[in-house]
Design goal:
- The protein is α/β, with parallel strands linked by helices and 430 residues long.
- It folds into two domains: 313 residues, Adenylosuccinate Synthetase, subunit A, domain 3 (Adenylosuccinate Synthetase, Chain A, domain 3, Alpha-Beta Complex), CATH 3.90.170; 97 residues, Orthogonal Bundle (Adenylosuccinate Synthetase, subunit A, domain 2).
- The chain is 32% helix and 20% strand.
- Strands 9-7-5-2-10-1-11-15-19-20 form a ten-stranded mixed sheet, sandwiched between helices. Strands 14, 16, 17 and 18 form a four-stranded mixed sheet that branches.
- Helix 3 packs parallel to helix 6 and helix 6 packs across helix 7.
- The longest helix has 22 residues.
- The chain is globular.
- It starts with a strand and ends in a 6-residue tail after the last strand.
- The relative contact order is 0.16.
- The mean pLDDT is 94.
- It catalyses: IMP + L-aspartate + GTP = N(6)-(1,2-dicarboxyethyl)-AMP + GDP + phosphate + 2 H(+).
- Its cofactor is Mg(2+).
Length: 430
C-alpha cells in the first residue's frame, strides 16, 4: 500500500494542515517527522477552526493513529495544552490513538531562554526565530547533551541530566546575556509532572511503523515548515533547525527510503515568508498588502504578518529537486480572485545574467531580481468549484502554467479553507 510524504514547497505556511487532513481519510497512520511548536497547522472543519503545533493534523479523524517521530523536538507545555484542547472539543477519546517516540528531544526552559536572549542580542540582525527554543534544542541534540523523553520519564536519569547541563546554561544566561539564572528544583518539579502525562503516549515509532508497513497499511508523513527552510538546503542562515525536505521523513521516524512511494509538495498560488531572509518576489506595495489581507496572512504560531509575493517557479523547482516531488498541491488559489493580472517568476536576473536555478549562495540570492511573465486574472469567486472544469478559463490556464514552469504535475487545488473547498485531480493513495 502507498506511503506518502507531505512537505511544504516554499518557506512554510503553505496550508499543509488542510491537505494532510484531507489525505488522512485514506491513511491508517499519520506521522510528524521534524520540527517543533514553531510550526502551526490550521484546520477548518465545518465552521470550527483548530490550530495544531505538535500533534499531527490527522488527529481530527477518529480511528487514525498519529505518531510524533524521533525527529521532532517537543515542548511538554505546548503538547499538554494541545491534548487538553482536543479533548475539550471531543477529539482523542482514546489515548492509544497518539504515540510519541521515546527518542523525541524535550525542549527545556533554558532552550527558550537562550533562544529569546540571542535574538534580542542580535538587534537589527535578527534571524526571525519564533523564540520557542527549537534551535537551541536541536543544538543540544547534535551536541549530545539533549534530554529525551526516555530520560524524562526516569526521575533519577532526568535529575542527573539536568545537573549536567544546567550549570553551563545558567553561566551563559547570566555571564553572557545578563539574564536571570534558572532554578534547578523548579525545573525538576515542573517537568516531573509533565513526565507522568507524556509517559502515557511513549512508544517506538520505528518498530511501530515497520509493523504497519509489513501489514500493508497506508502511512502519511507530515512535514512542518517548508523546503526552503531546510537546515542544509534552505536559505541559510535564515532557516529552521531541522531537515524539512522529504528525506527528513526517513531520518525523523526510523524507516528506510525504499518505503516512500510518493512525495507531495504543498505550495500556495503565490508565496509568503515569515521572518528575515531573502525573498526575491516579495511585494512591498499595495499588491502585497492585498494578498496579505485576502489570504489572512498572519502566522498561526506567532501572529506575525507574513511577507507576500508572486509565485516563484525558480524556488519551487528547487523544492521539486531536493524533495523529489511527484505531485504538487496548490492552496489558496481563491486569494487571487480579485487580481486583474497575475505574475509568475520564471527566472532571476543577477548581474546581467539570467538564472533559472535557485542560487545556493545567500549573497547571490539577495541580489537577484525576479523575471516575470504576466497572465490574466479571472476576477470571479471560485470557492464553489469542485472540479477543474468549473474553474474560469484564466484560472485553469494559470494552473497549467504552474505545472509547466515547475515541472511537477498538479494533484490537488484548494479554493477555500474548508475541507470541501478542494479539487482533487488525482489521489496519491489510489
Amino acid at each position: 500500500m502507498p506511503n506518502i510524504v507531505i512537505v511544504g514547497a516554499q518557506w512554510g505556511d503553505e496550508g499543509k494542515g488542510k491537505i494532510v487532513d484531507i489525505y488522512t481519510e485514506y491513511a491508517d497512520d499519520v506521522i510528524r517527522f521534524q520540527g517543533g511548536n514553531n510550526a502551526g497547522h490550521t484546520l477548518v472543519v465545518g465552521e470550527e477552526k483548530t490550530i495544531l503545533h505538535l500533534i499531527p493534523s490527522g488527529i481530527l479523524h477518529p480511528g487514525k493513529r498519529c505518531v510524533i517521530g524521533n525527529g521532532v523536538v517537543l515542548d511538554p507545555r505546548v503538547f499538554i495544552k494541545e491534548i487538553d484542547g482536543l479533548k475539550a472539543k471531543g477529539y482523542l477519546h482514546d489515548d492509544s490513538q497518539l504515540v510519541i517516540d521515546g527518542n523525541v528531544h524535550i525542549i527545556m526552559p533554558w532552550h527558550t531562554a537562550i533562544d529569546l536572549a540571542r535574538e534580542e542580542a542580535r538587534g537589527d540582525r535578527k534571524i526571525g526565530t519564533t523564540g520557542r527554543g527549537i534551535g537551541p534544542a536541536y543544538e543540544d541534540k547534535v551536541g549530545r547533551r539533549g534530554i529525551r523523553l526516555n530520560d524524562l520519564v526516569r526521575p533519577d536519569v532526568f535529575a542527573r541530566k539536568v545537573d549536567e547541563v544546567l550549570p553551563e546554561k545558567n553561566f551563559l544566561l547570566e555571564k553572557f546575556f545578563g539574564k536571570a539564572p534558572l532554578d534547578r528544583q523548579a525545573i525538576i518539579d515542573e517537568y516531573g509532572k509533565y513526565a507522568e502525562i507524556l509517559g502515557r503516549y511513549q512508544g517506538c515509532a520505528s518498530t511501530l511503523l515497520d509493523r504497519e508497513i509489513r501489514a500493508g497499511r497506508n502511512l502519511l508523513f507530515e512535514g512542518a515548515q517548508g523546503a526552503l527552510l531546510d537546515i542544509d538546503h534552505g536559505t541559510y542562515p535564515f532557516v529552521t533547525s531541522s531537515s524539512t525536505v522529504a528525506g527528513g521523513a526517513c531520518i525523523g521516524t526510523g524507516i528506510g527510503p525504499r518505503h516512500i512511494d510518493q512525495v507531495i509538495g504543498i505550495s500556495k498560488a503565490y508565496v509568503t515568508r515569515v521572518g528575515s531572509g531573502p525573498f526575491p518576489t516579495e511585494l512591498e506595495d499595495e499588491t502585497g498588502d492585498a494578498l496579505r489581507k485576502a489570504g489572512q496572512e498572519f502566522g498561526s504560531t506567532t501572529g506575525r504578518p507574513r511577507r507576500c509575493g508572486w509565485f516563484d517557479a525558480v524556488a519551487l523547482r528547487e523544492a521539486v529537486r531536493t524533495s523529489g516531488l511527484t505531485g504538487l498541491a496548490i492552496t489558496k488559489l481563491d486569494v487571487l480572485n480579485a487580481m486583474e493580472t497575475i505574475k509568475i517568476c520564471t527566472g532571476y536576473s543577477w548581474q546581467g545574467e539570467l538564472l533559472e536555478d535557485f542560487p545556493r549562495d545567500f549573497e547571490i540570492l539577495r541580489e537577484c531580481k525576479p523575471v516575470y511573465e504576466q497572465m490574466d486574472g479571472w476576477c470571479s469567486d471560485i470557492s464553489s468549484a469542485r472540479s477543474l472544469d468549473e474553474l474560469p478559463a484564466a484560472a485553469r490556464a494559470y494552473l497549467d502554467r504552474l505545472a509547466e514552469v515547475t515541472g511537477c504535475p498538479l494533484v490537488l487545488v484548494s479554493v477555500g479553507p474548508r475541507r470541501d473547498q478542494t479539487i482533487q485531480i488525482s489521489n496519491p493513495f489510489a
